[in-house]
């Protein structure tokens, strides 16, 4: 049994197995989940990590001990769990640690309709109730819930394919790097019957991640995909993270594509179907996204970083689509939940509907030069941020915004400096009209932060 305060994060549960998260803890969380949500039936899925199936089974015992029936979807991606929750109208739990190293595991929880459970919407209550169950010595002699299995992969694939028209696409050569994660389980079924010549990298499910971390936001983890795209002359490369809810795109030149560019592309497609609709983007997404959305007659809405903020804003505004710079993409037609696979299908449709190479299509959605997110270890996040504010305070035409961290905007450039919630880090994202200006702003901010 670990420290529940440590492993219950703002949006999910995440910890080292078994030191911080073990089966006894998962069992107590299962019981607490039912008590807090009032679930009569819940659906559970898990990724390919060695600890995932045992933890999911323990959670199931806990939920059943409180009288809830549990439907086991077995192996699945996180967006398959969202599909299960949405289509069945049931609360659900996904066992995964996403892109974290092999020794970690965790839980992503939602209410019926894939509504996320976070710190302000029940997660703290589940944590405290689980702690009380553990302190009292365990579950007690209750019971009554039933457990059944259900294969939802085909339904998930059919649902996604029903949201994107791929019927007229041209033959495509596609490389997919699943990183030994759940994309290796879902991609073959989702792509089945499409005119796609698939080159599969690391589709073997292996929670030890023997080839590279399943975290495509790190450039080193894209190297194999980029090389293979060039080697086989592919039209596109796709990389998924461990639980396959994020998707990263590589063009036919082997160049990594910014998630902001993909956000703009998918937004444009959604606005054709839903003229004038709201599109959500977080505040570190390229300024090109709201510009393009506005030009196409849509209404861009800016949010803080984090899926709970995006989903809440989408539900409030009725937005049809939302994108984050971390390669999470959210769809109203998918219960406002995120699906890397659905975003990938949109890109494949856009590519396959005409003859141009991907790089040429995407050129129209890329307007500015952006830095990657750059982390700096600092002893005092507040003091370092104040130094940056002071350094830019006297400049003409500069504005400040504190929606999430500190955003500083000037003529033709902007940057955002955000503190990490869990580590002594400041995260910098910068963008400008060209590479030279962006590099100058980036380097100046980093010099102040690290001084």
From TrEMBL:
It holds the Pfam family PGM_PMM_IV. Residues 6-123, 155-254, 264-368 form the Alpha-D-phosphohexomutase alpha/beta/alpha domain. CDD domains: PMM_PGM. The keyword Magnesium applies. Gene3D superfamilies: Alpha-D-Glucose-1,6-Bisphosphate, subunit A, domain 3, Alpha-D-phosphohexomutase, C-terminal domain. It comes from the Bacteria. The keyword Magnesium applies. InterPro entries: A-D-PHexomutase_a/b/a-I, A-D-PHexomutase_a/b/a-I/II/III, A-D-PHexomutase_a/b/a-II, A-D-PHexomutase_a/b/a-III, A-D-PHexomutase_C, A-D-PHexomutase_C_sf, Alpha-D-phosphohexomutase_SF. Its cofactor is Mg(2+). Keywords: Isomerase, Magnesium, Metal-binding, Phosphoprotein. Residues 373-447 form the Alpha-D-phosphohexomutase C-terminal domain. Transmembrane segments: none annotated. PANTHER family: PHOSPHOMANNOMUTASE (PTHR43771:SF1). Belongs to the phosphohexose mutase family. This is Phosphomannomutase/phosphoglucomutase. It comes from Streptosporangium amethystogenes subsp. fukuiense. The lineage of its organism: Bacteria, Bacillati, Actinomycetota, Actinomycetes, Streptosporangiales.
